[in-house]
């Protein structure tokens, strides 16, 4: 049956690809990918060789038409991005949208995503999380955007590029309570992987200690805001402990 397979690929460590993903990549009629060089490398690592169709941010609509034509010819097409899960801060969503509008079959094939990988190691116990992806680049817009998130009782997941990470950390400190916990996850699954958890107010010191900490790819996780109820609860516990201390 004609199908568009949306496949998650490694975010660093080449071994992080599922057997199912490899099987589909090996047997698909074609692979639509973001950067053909990156996907060629991945395929080479597994001894695969396939027709590649370049599908990036700027040609998604046209490529969608081409893929729809092929799918209507009963082909099986794989869709990948350079790293991680397509359509998550990556191209792919417009293609999937167009394919769905034609009532053609779409099947997701799960693989790594930097967001979920970082979240799993955060230790944050919030029940909810909110995926933000990249923040607005302009400082004023970034501040305004963060202001709106300040009271959100969910772990916030932010993607950041190395050349902007320090500026973003500054904005976070400006807007959020400096005592909020953050996890800085860099170079996940790679050689110099690090996940560091501290208070927002301690991030500048940590970054300054080693120039390498400012390099690589980053996911920033901010612990969710305390709800009004949590705050009341914390205050009640504080008063109770003072009172208990006074008891004979
Ligand atoms: N689609 C990808 C995913 O699902 O993970 C995200 C692609 S987005 C263009 C690239 C951003 O993802 C980076 O700037 C960084 O914030 C994050 N990222 C990707 N790989 C990473 C890694 N190995 N370690 C930390 N962050 C990573």
UniProtKB/TrEMBL annotation:
Signal peptide: none annotated. Its EC number is 2.1.1.198. Its main location: cytoplasm. GO terms for molecular function: rRNA (cytosine-2'-O-)-methyltransferase activity. GO terms for cellular component: cytoplasm. It catalyses: cytidine(1402) in 16S rRNA + S-adenosyl-L-methionine = 2'-O-methylcytidine(1402) in 16S rRNA + S-adenosyl-L-homocysteine + H(+). Residues 3-202 form the Tetrapyrrole methylase domain. It is found in: Cytoplasm. Keywords: Cytoplasm, Methyltransferase, rRNA processing, S-adenosyl-L-methionine, Transferase. Catalyzes the 2'-O-methylation of the ribose of cytidine 1402 (C1402) in 16S rRNA. Belongs to the methyltransferase superfamily. RsmI family. This is Ribosomal RNA small subunit methyltransferase I. It comes from Oxalobacter paraformigenes. The lineage of its organism: Bacteria, Pseudomonadati, Pseudomonadota, Betaproteobacteria, Burkholderiales. The gene is rsmI. The chain holds residues 17 to 264 of 296 of the full protein.
